[in-house]
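Appendix B, record 7
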Amino acid sequence: MTTPTLLAWSGGKDCLLALNALLHDPQWQVCALLTTVTQRYQRVAMHGVRRDVLLAQAAALGLPLIEAVLEEPGDNAAYERAQHAALAQAAERFPGLRHCAFGDLFLEDVRAYRQAQLARWGWHGVYPLWNTDTAALARQFIDQGHRAVVVCVDTTQLAAEFCGREFDSAFLDALPPGVDPCGERGEFHTLAYGGPLFRAPLPLTRDQSVLRDGRFQYTEFVLAQGA
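Structure tokens (predicted):
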């Protein structure tokens, strides 16, 4: 008997690998993706990915999308309100659903926060990638045919010119020492757009790059016109 679960979905490579792991584990049935979207900018929180690209991802993966809408100011209290409301919506839509999976890799404080937050609402966390070697995981992503681009770089940890690049072997080979190959410490964030889990690759076009808050370099990827 399978257990239903949501998957926290940022749109990046780690959550795609988590989805891949869950789909190949008979214990779990992925009901839907759960994404935090900013109300003001209509983008995925932190990654900065446009909502229309997010919707195209979910459609290409063949999964429903539950949106946790983050209102201003986007502080921790607002985030928790948005998550609570989205989980309540998911539980109503999918009876018996009380698990949410994450693509977290090794940050103990992040996992502890999620566990405490979910427990308050009667939910449980699932971590299919936990403690997997990140160098091996990054190569696995590429070797299995998954595709992603880098959409955000924390320039205090990694040079801005890494933003906008394809997440491929050349990218990994160029990373300086001390940067996690999966960007688990927030060095960079990615946007998955193709591979074996997608019905078809997303038709993305690279657009402008911009530095925000004097620190975060973002590169915009938009859906090709007429797609």
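Remarks on this record: Helices lie at 13-23, 51-61, 76-93, 108-120, 134-143, 169-174. The beta strands are 3-8, 28-38, 65-70, 99-101, 124-126, 147-154, 188-194, 204-212, 216-223.
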